[in-house]
């Protein structure tokens, strides 16, 4: 019956092919189908059948590729990995490679599995383990398995040697301490008889050299030999890259590389190898002109190739060569310009970056003209990039390549005619910068800006920030600041205050109002403030200027921008003052704008020193709380349970509601920050169009009287490069971020490897009990000598003065010997065949788990078929799947280690578990009974804490006190720290120590030296936990005697 049921289950169980067909057949309800399949897979994983688990993991791997999370099956993957068949291992290792990360918890259970499979006699099983190791390696795996991987470098199988070499790079990244001892073995692989192994070693060393190339300069002779003798293009690419990192460190190496690199570039048909040779020449062979010219000629083949990828790479390399040999690259200007019309936008942008480097005084105008001609035929994104490059190439180096500034002003004005551009702010900044720095161009600049102010297109096209309307900011500022070069000031004032300006961004409105006031002051000064003088049509007069200001400024006093409102109100008050007082205040008005404005450094604001006593983070003004909460009433309220109460549906009083609405409207009218629709549209005058008869201007006045003509700029034009800085400005502040710490920067592989750095096979320190031959020889010594030594020791302790905690640091009559570190390894049991030791390990990331690491030593016999049988109490259980059968045998007088992971419910009480280790010693069965205690102190870890925080924390904890005898204060305090794993916080007349358990129990100790011993007060979050810790401490101090 059971066999029949098993066969029926296997018959109806879905395979991977069935899963794929089912997903394709359920396109409408794919997610529901997959969720159903996952439930079936979970049931299959609970079965004992190994084939069922293998098929389930195979299906989960496919679902993971579709984006489903399968991390919950990590234990089951390790189960499949540990099965003996190669097919099962392949499926398990593939699933682990795709889903495990270096933070996966169950990786700590797979260390021995990796160790076993890496050392397998089957090269394919070794390959599976090494491949998985490269994907999931973490620091612990790298540290534990590095010796085994280095040992594989001497394997007789090429397949295994090659994989072992490659995985070492991942090991070095996770455990850099393995690089120094492993490097001599890795260096030997550069001379391996198999070229595949040589290629793998070259690849690893090339990647390491990117981190710290100086370490690998001694390998240059071996690498040069491989470079000149190998025909493997892939390995040659890696070698050429590596030499590119080494040539800046050794100039003589560049001279040796000229010939082989030249031969490769002239003979190879592989474009990838040719490109790497060119890049290496740009790094280390810049002093050899013949090689650089050869590189440029080869890059021309890249650029002219129809393959878009090669064309892009050619432009990229040519851009690097531009910094080395700009004159040689400029010879290919026509080739680069042809790329500006390429269909691929990435190539056009790369060519655009390159063309900027070809600019000089002779080629600037031609290149800019070529870029301007492409503005009308380009798409929006490329057109914006063209405008940006035109401005960049002209403004670089404080306009060092510009010969004629009138030409540049015309270029900027022409850019304002490009529809839809988002570079209005940048064009505006350039117009301001040129007119401020170049004094000789101000007259021409003012004439050009007047034309822009009369151009209605700038306000109608894109009245938003960064739009082309931003140019009006520069135009009004330049005309107002350099008004002595302007004519017909009244017409300009009328253009500055047109109603259409009110729809522009606030900062443009504000600068227009400000400069209209400037021009009004100029008109008043020229007319001596006489408002009675009648002016001829088209001429400026104080009366006309006054009329324009009175008519236009009221519109801007109602602007939504506060600065515009302020300046407009100021202007109206100024106009009223002139109208009432007359010309007597004209000089004072002109004096308001007489201070010249100079260029300000870009970093001037950040260099302003903060005055002493000023706290920039302090609150300047605390806004008053609102006295009217009526606006919030419609939003409902939150009840005490956090649920939202909807407004009541009870009808409201219409009279009260209307009164509330009127009050709210009145309050909003008085709020300058509120923007809303107004019912009083009649308050705003209609938008007018500027005409010649509005202020009796002559026809044709809209055209500039100073039409710019093509002039050759004098050869010596003064450009203002000095920039104003604030008083007390600090020095240059570099904003470069410090270079990040390199993983291998502190590792020197040239020096000899110390004995403590040697990589050894997987082994752990064993307790000295029973393993020291000198100890065994001394067991038959004279008992009377031992008793005599013990008496002398007791007498010396009685004679020592009793010190307090403050005297611990006093220097004794003889230099005290350092106390040996207490071993964390304890004996669990032994017999004639085996000795068993253990050590405990905890992890704060897994507060409910403890790891027991068993150290097994064979005594005189070979141990095989090891198996742990554990009996756990109710509060403790073994984490499944538990590998209770170690996958190794132990030779006589050697040892090995095995880990088991336990989970507990509470650690406030000490625990212990019993077990049995069964084995075969030289073919005969044997066993060893053992018992492992889990004291509370095993879960306490040393944590640093501030003394003040320690005192505040101790006040909140429960206390346990005791007085313990201790003759030596120094040794006693060290024993307390080692037993409870606590850290010294402060020592005065009282020693304060602190630790914290993995479950966040705070442990605070106060130790005071009393006559004959210690007075100890232990405060803990849990009183039971603290009492047990104190009991452990009493036993430890008693044994210290």
List the SSEs and their pairings.
Elements: H1 2-12, H2 16-25, H3 30-45, H4 50-65, H5 74-81, H6 86-99, H7 111-118, H8 123-136, H9 139-151, H10 158-174, H11 179-188, H12 195-211, H13 220-229, H14 233-246, H15 251-267, H16 271-284, H17 289-304, H18 308-322, H19 326-330, H20 333-338, H21 345-356, H22 364-373, H23 380-399, H24 405-415, H25 424-437, H26 442-453, H27 457-460, H28 471-481, H29 489-496, H30 506-526, H31 542-556, H32 562-581, H33 586-591, H34 630-633, E1 637-638, E2 644-645, H35 654-669, H36 773-777, H37 783-799, E3 826-830, E4 834-842, E5 849-858, E6 863-871, E7 876-878, E8 895-904, E9 911-921, E10 924-934, E11 940-942, H38 947-954, E12 958-965, H39 969-980, E13 983-987, E14 991-997, E15 1002-1010, E16 1013-1020, H40 1023-1040
Antiparallel strand pairs: 1-2, 3-4, 4-5, 5-8, 6-9, 7-8, 9-10, 11-14, 12-16, 13-14, 14-15, 15-16
Helix pairs in contact: 2-3, 3-4, 4-6, 5-6, 6-8, 7-9, 8-10, 9-10, 10-12, 12-14, 13-14, 14-16, 15-16, 16-17, 16-18, 17-18, 18-21, 21-23, 22-23, 24-25, 24-26, 25-28, 26-28, 28-30, 29-30, 29-31, 30-31, 30-32, 31-32, 39-40
Strand content: 5-15%
| Count of helical stretches | 40
- Distance separating the two termini: 70 Å
* Derived structural class: alpha+beta
**Average pLDDT across residues?**
77
The overall strand count is 16
Q: Quick one: biggest sheet?
A: 6 strands, antiparallel
Q: Determine the fraction of residues in helical runs and give it as a percent range.
A: 40-55%
User: Which overall shape is indicated by the principal axes computed on the Cα atoms?
Assistant: extended
Radius of gyration: 43 Å
What are the segments in which pLDDT stays under 50 over at least 5 consecutive residues?
Answer: 1-8, 626-650, 677-715, 733-741, 762-782, 800-821
């Amino acid at each position: 019956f059971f066999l029949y049921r098993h066969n029926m289950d296997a018959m109806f169980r879905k395979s991977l092919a069935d899963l794929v067909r089912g997903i394709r057949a359920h396109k409408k309800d794919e997610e529901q189908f997959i969720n159903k399949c996952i439930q079936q897979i979970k049931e299959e994983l609970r079965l004992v059948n190994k084939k069922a688990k293998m098929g389930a993991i195979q299906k989960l791997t496919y679902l993971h590729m579709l984006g489903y999370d399968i991390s919950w099956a990590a234990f089951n993957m390790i189960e499949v990995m540990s099965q003996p068949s190669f097919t099962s291992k392949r499926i398990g290792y593939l699933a682990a490679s795709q889903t495990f990360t270096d933070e996966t918890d169950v990786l700590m259970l797979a260390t021995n599995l990796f160790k076993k499979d890496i050392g397998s006699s089957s090269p394919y099983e070794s390959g599976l383990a090494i491949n998985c190791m490269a994907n999931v390696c973490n620091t612990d795996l790298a540290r534990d398995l590095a010796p085994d991987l280095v040992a594989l470098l001497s394997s007789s199988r090429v397949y295994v040697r090659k994989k072992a070499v490659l995985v070492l790079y991942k090991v070095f990244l996770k455990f850099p301490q393995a690089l120094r001892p492993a490097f001599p073995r890795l260096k030997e692989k550069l001379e391996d008889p198999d070229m595949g192994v040589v290629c793998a070693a070259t690849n690893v060393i090339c990647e390491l050299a990117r981190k710290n190339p100086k370490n690998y300069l001694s390998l240059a002779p071996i690498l040069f030999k491989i470079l000149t003798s190998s025909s493997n293009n892939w390995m040659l690419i890696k070698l050429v890259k590596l030499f590119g990192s080494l040539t800046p460190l050794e100039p003589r190496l560049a001279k040796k590389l000229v010939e082989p690199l030249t031969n490769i570039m002239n003979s190879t048909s592989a474009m990838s190898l040719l490109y790497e040779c060119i890049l290496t020449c740009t790094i280390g062979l810049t002093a050899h002109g013949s090689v650089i010219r050869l590189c440029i000629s080869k890059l021309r083949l890249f650029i002219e190739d129809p393959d878009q990828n090669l064309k892009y790479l050619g432009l990229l390399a040519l851009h690097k060569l531009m910094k080395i040999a700009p004159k040689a690259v400029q010879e290919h200007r026509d080739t680069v310009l042809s790329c500006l019309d390429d269909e691929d936008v990435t190539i056009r942008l790369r060519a655009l970056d390159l063309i900027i480097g070809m600019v000089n005084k002779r080629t600037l105008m031609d290149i800019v003209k070529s870029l301007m001609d492409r503005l009308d035929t380009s798409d929006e994104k490329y057109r914006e990039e063209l405008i940006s490059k035109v401005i960049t190439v002209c403004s670089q180096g404080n306009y060092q390549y510009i010969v004629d500034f009138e030409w540049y002003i015309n270029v900027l004005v022409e850019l304002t005619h490009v529809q839809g551009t988002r570079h209005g702010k940048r064009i505006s900044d350039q117009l301001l910068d040129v007119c401020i720095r170049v004094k000789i161009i101000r007259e021409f600049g003012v004439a050009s800006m007047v034309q822009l102010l009369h151009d209605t297109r700038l306000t109608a096209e894109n009245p938003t920030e960064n739009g082309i309307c931003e140019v009006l900011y520069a135009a009004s500022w330049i005309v107002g600041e350099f008004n002595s070069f302007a004519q017909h000031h009244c017409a300009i004032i009328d253009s500055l205050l047109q109603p259409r300006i009110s729809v522009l961004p606030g900062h443009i409105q504000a600068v227009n109002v400000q400069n209209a006031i400037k021009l009004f002051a100029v008109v008043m000064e020229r007319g001596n403030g006489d408002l009675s003088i009648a002016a001829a049509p088209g001429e400026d007069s104080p009366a006309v200027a006054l009329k324009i200001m009175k008519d236009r400024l009221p519109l801007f006093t109602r602007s939504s921008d506060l600065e515009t409102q302020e300046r407009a109100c100021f202007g109206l008050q100024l106009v009223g003052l002139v109208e009432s007082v007359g010309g007597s205040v004209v000089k004072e008005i002109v004096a308001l704008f007489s201070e010249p404005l100079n260029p300000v450094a870009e970093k001037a604001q950040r260099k302003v020193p903060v005055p002493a006593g000023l706290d920039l983070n302090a609150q300047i003004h605390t806004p008053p709380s609102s006295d009217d909460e009526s606006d919030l009433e419609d939003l409902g309220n939150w009840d005490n349970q956090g649920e939202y109460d909807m407004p009541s549906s009870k009808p409201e009083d219409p009279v009260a509601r209307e009164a509330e609405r009127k009050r709210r409207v009145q309050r909003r009218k008085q709020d300058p920050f509120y923007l809303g629709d107004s019912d009083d549209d009649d308050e705003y005058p209609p938008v007018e169009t500027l005409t010649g008869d509005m202020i009796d201007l002559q026809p044709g006045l809209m055209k500039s009287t100073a039409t710019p003509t093509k002039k050759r700029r004098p050869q010596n034009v003064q450009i203002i490069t000095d920039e104003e800085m604030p008083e007390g400005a600090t020095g240059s502040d570099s904003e470069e971020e410090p270079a990040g710490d390199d993983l291998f920067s502190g590792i020197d592989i040239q020096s000899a490897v110390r004995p403590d750095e040697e990589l050894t096979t997987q082994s752990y320190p064993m307790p000295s009990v029973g393993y020291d031959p000198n100890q065994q020889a001394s067991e038959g010594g004279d008992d009377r000598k031992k008793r005599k030594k013990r008496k002398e020791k007791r007498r010396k302790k009685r004679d020592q003065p009793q010190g307090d905690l403050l005297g611990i640091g006093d220097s004794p009559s003889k230099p005290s010997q350092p106390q040996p570190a207490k071993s964390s390894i304890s004996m669990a049991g032994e017999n004639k065949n085996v000795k068993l030791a253990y050590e405990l390990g905890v992890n704060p990331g897994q507060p409910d788990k403890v790891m027991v690491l068993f150290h097994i030593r064979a005594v005189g016999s070979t141990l095989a078929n090891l198996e742990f049988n554990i009996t756990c109490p109710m509060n403790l259980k073994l984490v499944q799947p538990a590998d209770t059968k170690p996958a190794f045998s132990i030779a006589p007088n050697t040892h090995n280690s095995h880990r088991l992971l336990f989970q507990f419910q509470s650690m406030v009480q000490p625990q212990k578990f019993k077990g049995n280790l069964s084995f075969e010693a030289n073919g005969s069965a044997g066993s060893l009974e053992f018992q492992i205690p889990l004291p509370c102190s095993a879960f306490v870890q040393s944590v640093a804490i501030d003394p003040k925080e320690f005192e505040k924390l101790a006040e909140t904890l429960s206390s346990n006190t005791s007085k313990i005898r201790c003759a030596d204060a120094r040794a006693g305090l060290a024993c307390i720290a080692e037993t409870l794993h606590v850290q010294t916080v402060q020592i005065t007349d009282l020693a304060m120590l602190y630790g914290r358990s993995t479950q966040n129990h705070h442990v605070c100790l106060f130790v005071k030296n009393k006559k004959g011993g210690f007075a100890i007060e232990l405060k803990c979050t849990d009183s039971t936990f603290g009492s047990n810790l104190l009991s452990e401490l009493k036993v430890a101090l008693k044994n210290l005697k």
